[in-house]
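Q: Can someone sanity-check these two? First one:
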Amino acid sequence: MITFDSLTLKAFIEENKEFLTGARIQRIQQPTRRDFVLAIRGFDKDGKSVIKKLYININPQYHHVCFMSKENESKRLIEIPQKPPMFCMLLRKYLENAKICKVNQPPYERILELYVETFNELAEKIHLCLAVELMGKHSNVVLYNDDTNVIIGCAHNVGAEKSREREMAGTLPYVYPPKQNKIDILNYNGEIDYSRLNSDFYWFSKSFATQAAGMGLDKLRNYVQLKGLSPAISKDYSQYTLFRELLPDSIPQNSVNEMLDNYYAYFIEKDKCRTLKTHLTTVVNQRLKKCRASLTKMQTQLKKEKEADRYRLYGDLILANIYNLKDFSTQAEVFDYENNKNITITLDETKTLKDNANNFYKLYTKSKTSREKLTELSDALHTEINYLEQVLYSINISAGMPDLQEIKSEILPDNEAKTKKTPVNLPLELEVEGFKVWVGRNNRQNDYIVSKLSREEDYWFHIKDCAGSHVLLRCEQPSDRLIFECAKLAKEYSSAKLTSKAGVIYTKRKYLKKPPKANLGYVTYKCEKEIVV
């Protein structure tokens, strides 16, 4: 991944300077500590009034600035908090409805300066500057008074313990970063050491220096002056360039802004997708661990309760031999007619034989009830474990953020799920031998296939005794080959994908039933057949 450099910022400003100059900042939002969205109203090249969203990211990994498209805004998963942060409130106080009078970049710096005109509480015109510093881990957004050069506020305060040369906080003077000891290539006529291109000259970041290695001095000067600008992104999104000739096998972009928007939106979505996937996997694994631990305890308890029949036998033997035994005895020697042997039963010497027998019957009844409840709870835990394993499988095969958002809404607590209703993405639609086949990639899509898409005469496939996708075939009289192909799909989209062989069950849709209050994607079936793949 390539980091945002000063030459890219220079190209972005040159491209958007006309729109920004004279535009007004209408709305300011701060989704996170490191994200800012400024809705800016200006005029396009045709003179029409338009609103563009200026996205500012000061994350050390993805620091950049661009105008977002709607598609890439959704990729960034921007969620506006109900209570804006204090710095956002400060920016709204000073900058909302303010007019941008000048856009500037200090020489060779990765700083975007938006100079604005606005009015204070006394209706006096004041001049402020919003400085967006895009410098890796030192990235920041600073608002200062251009007349007095005093900082009003910044996204991150920088104290003396973090930086000896440049403290950043309210009421302190705003100063530029220390100058680097480099040369402007436009004023240089000597030999070029390409291994030190980044260290010796301004405008050349490490990535750009690597791309431009071996180019002549005149060519490098043209690059710095942005002559022959042709933005592009490599096909694997590993890097971008302002000059496509430096990346021959790349995807051309219509503008610098489009290049930045597409490039960084791709990585932000990828990172958020990975983070959400890890979070959901952790949540599901924790629930699985609890369920399995509870099931183990119940199974241990069930083994103990299986000895309950012994209490019934003791009661029967005592009553069968009540005339041969004495009350208030410590034990009774009787013949066990079920196992054909003599046994000794320990008695309560404070009770009669009849009371001892009744006590054994009570223990038997209690154990029997306990065993029924434990069996019921164990079955419920088995169902929950199967459901969670299905969710875990869905997380592992999720194709992107939309699938993960569906799973997230599924496993959220009820109160959160009610406030966030995620629309169902359509299942994967395929064509097998001319017939339509649908494959669900998570429980929501599986449920959608069974409840919405399917017809009574359609065929339903699922891997046997494993987590997997529901596969629906729209064909009333499928051939054996078509059934086998759909069974192969059911195995491929399951946790048994890598096994040498597995059983796949299939039946008609009319033989499926969804029990009331069952988990998403859970169905019962009858009249099924099995095929081994």
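And here is the second, same format, sequence then tokens:
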Amino acid sequence: MRVGVDVGGTFTDLVALVDGDVVTAKVPTTPSDQSDGVMRCIKAAGIETRAVTALAHGMTVATNALLERRGARTALVTTKGFRDLLEIGRQNRPSLYDLTQDRPPQLIPRELRFTVQERMGVGGELEALDAGELELVVKELADAGVEAVAVCFLWAFRHPDHEKRAGEAIRRALPGVHVSLSSEVLPEFREYERLATTAADAYLGPKLRTYLNGLSDKVTGASLPPPLVMQSSGGVIGIEAAAANAASCVLSGPAGGVVGAAHAAGASGYGDLVTFDMGGTSTDVAPVVGGRVQTTTESLVAGVPIKLPMVDVHTVSAGGGSIAWIDEGGALRVGPHSAGADPGPACYGRGGREPTVTDANLFLGYLADGARLGGELDLERDHAEAALARLGARLGLKTQELALGIVEVANAEMARALRVITVERGLDPRDFVLVAFGGAGPMHACALAEELAMDVVLVPRASGVLSALGLAISDVRRDYVIPFLEELGKAEASRVSRTFEELELKGAGDLEGAEFQRRADLRYKGQSFELTVDAGDLGGLEPRWHEAHEQRYGYRIDDAAVEIVNLRVTATVGVDVPRLEEAAASGRADAGARGAIFDEEWQEVPVVDRTRMGRGSKVAGPALIEFPDATCVVRPGWAGAVDNAGTLVLERARD
């Protein structure tokens, strides 16, 4: 039995793969200690813990620590003269003309940034590491009472000797302090990104280790195997490796959703898709091209650049629990603040008084009054209506007008996110299908597909817990990189192959029986940015690069020199993935009717019980389909059926 448990901002989801069957569970997240919610979810699933062979886990511990700036007390040790590099950063600004824009606070305050005399250059040592200064800095670190230290020297990615000596001295003098070396965290050039990523790794390390150790103790006590932790790159690693590489787990939860969506869509015969994961706190969207999950090394999380391989996910603060409010100009806004799991939306009846997207959906009839969420929460329409009425009175809007406005504002924010990962990546959304999942995703999917002129929406059977399914089926994965700055046309193929083989040898030592994928970061000579392309066939590397550049940026320069910047190897160990199958329909799945608003008019629409649908079951909009962990709103003009893999395939009628 393989089990995946995903901790979201509002709910904790579980999927257990038992002899080809899928067992699911959902409970409210426990923000004070997410591991409590994990154990409650395992208990709610009613599975035999001794039969579990693998437990994969995705969580938001690292993400929340970055967002809330609640990581460890961290210090920096760097080359003399570069103390303020972390603050200076790059010249690019996300909002160049916004005079009110504040930069997020730095992870390491200036008084905890220390420098030592040393200098490496491209060819090696230029100035020896000053042992006396290093000893003084170590003493200052002890006096400052830090919990973690980031060490980042110039050119350490190529010549790490000084950095390693500094790390050894700190570890020897401060054995309980977490130490992150840039030459181990990110052995790539570009000192600012390397420093920022190393700082994030040190900042998150102690908190993540504490959480994972506590979780490990609990699961061991429950006769479960040690957890495997989902990385941002879309593969799992052991708990010790995760604790030692905290920055690689920042997008742990969203990555599982993309993996699960790619698997479900592939089982239905679709390889080009856009994943749409709308949970209680946020919405995550990502492209999958040719069945392959897309990754990037250009992620910015909570204002911190993390240059590690991550699933190319774009996140917006528009979830079911996102709070509606009025800005200073009197306009209706939704998010980024969320009601979370406690107290949650007003309709939870736990004391929340501000209206959320879930309250609006409940009032508009898309959710049933009295519906149970997470096995513990009963939705109450009266509470939702009261919260909506209070805000509506301030705007001079009727309750229905406000509820429709909240949904429209949330949809606009999510449609913008979908354009970011399609149109702005050189992808035409009309050539893709939309895979909707998460507790709230299927409610908004048809409306968003119409906005982007997409004709097909897929809603997998386990859509409400698809991220947990992705965790349960994820490969074990490790990523390796080495700088290799050389013009492609002048690089010796034998030396490139030899370098790849060195990385693969390292991967074979870390993962027994691993398979390898070779990739390379390339750029036109003189460019300051690069793209990663497949490098399995060196002879076709340059044509692939031109094609990738044209797709992403809209042009290519066939006669320009191309440079190799980095060589990468991904090592993976696959797992047995169950085949998704759906039994034939037996009997009727009608579950009555309910009043709901479609195109601003109340209509009595059929309600369909997904648990009583089967292969070949058909539906036509307007209709409401109630899954065990989600609700799908089928808008007028949409119709579809359940396929062999258990996915509801909805298609939009064309004029």
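A (reply): Looked at the second one. Residues 476-573 form a domain with the Dna Ligase; domain 1 fold (CATH 3.30.1490). The first strand starts at residue 2 and ends at 7.
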